[in-house]
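#lab-general

N.A. 3:47 PM
ok so I finally got the sequence cleaned up, no stray characters, all 486 residues accounted for. can someone with queue access submit it? mine expired

B.Y. 3:52 PM
send it over

N.A. 3:53 PM
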Amino acid sequence: MTESVDVVLIGGGIMSATLGTLLRELQPDWKVVAFERLGDVAEESSNAWNNAGTGHAALCELNYMPEGKDGSLDPGKAIGINEQFQLSRQLWSTLVDRGVLDAPTTFINSTPHMTFVRGQKDVDYLRRRYEILKEQPLFAGIEFSEDSRVINQWAPLLMEHRRKGEPFAATRVPSGTDVDFGSLTRQLFDHLAESENFTLLRNHEVRKLKKQKDGSWNVRYRNAIGHTPGELNAKFVFVGAGGWALKLLQGSGISEIRGYGCFPIGGQWLKTSNPAIVAKHKAKVYSQAPVGAPPMSVPHLDTRVVDGETSLLFGPFATFSPKFLKQGGMLDIVTQVRAHNLGSMLKVAFTNFDLIKYLVSELLKTHHRKVATLREFMPTAQDGDWELLQAGQRAQVMKGGKLQFGTEVVAAADGTIAGLLGASPGASTAVPVMLDVLQRCFPEQFGAWEPALQKLIPTLGEKLNDSPADAAASMGATAKTLDLTA
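B.Y. 4:20 PM
back already:
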């Protein structure tokens, strides 16, 4: 007889870990099974070395506040992403208070967020962006300077041996963070494993999802080591498997996935652990993306703290692979093709020549040329101090003939299955994204869950940016609990 459970989570990343954690608080009696096709959780996009580790709050990422055709700047998207990150911080803060998560420094550390631009056009843009954001409560404390002496105090590596006469400017927000999403994910799954109603199946790959007459799902899987097949029945399925989510949702047959496709983009970092270099830089410094580059390829020089070790990363440099996951299949880009998404995918191919040109130019870069790119940020960079590190694989969403950049929930109309597509801001907004899943897929229960959710996330339902006092109080409270001293 096929075993029946309440919830199946597919994928051992931060999204499944977050949803599982919320459900344990809301419905501890529900039986939950999580599947991870690799030997451990947090080995794909949630792995610390596979992502930027930025607590995306739009403090430094210019693509969240693009310049309109008329030259106008709208802070709406930047404010929205910052609001979302505050929800994530609040949940993490509550879980630290309750002892669910270890010491905050094991997964989050204070790291100022900066933006650094060169050239008069970008300097003018950055100044206007600053003038708008400094009035927003969630961006309180943002600083702007065109003075090399000030920027040298913020980030010395940016200024050492920089050519005189070149226009440049920077903004800085001391309250930024560096997040080890790998550690956070593992801690959340460790907590879930303490429940007798939770099971984590590592080295188990979900192969097929089939809807049953009663609305439940037959989940067929295979042990990746012994290739032993198995199946169970679930009332609700969440597909949080990165690029693999598209293939599983297509196989499920839900109409909501029609028209979607994915374009895989990989990446590499330059990394140094040289103490003399690392000691001179404590910040995440973002700049403008090259012409034709996707937003996820915005160059940045980052302080990273992983497993207690501090290092610097620069990149990412785009790579190409047909795989949807780092440990995916070489035919992923082909097997996604359907009659309903072929036209959209072809349109993307024919209307994104700048992207193709950019990818080709990136693939031709040698280690020496990549360090030369770094020298635009850090003039003193030397080839021998930096090693190449392969980053994660991202599957950018294609729909309606457009390449979309963001994180998108695809859910069946009856709420029995949902999946996540896309990339940045991704992990940083795991909490609000999973709250969206709960609200869309469990509308009858959500009202009864709200009091418990309010205890986990005190400002749930509020807009912090509408109130300077509330924004300051909330950010101050989570900063204190998470030990985020600027």
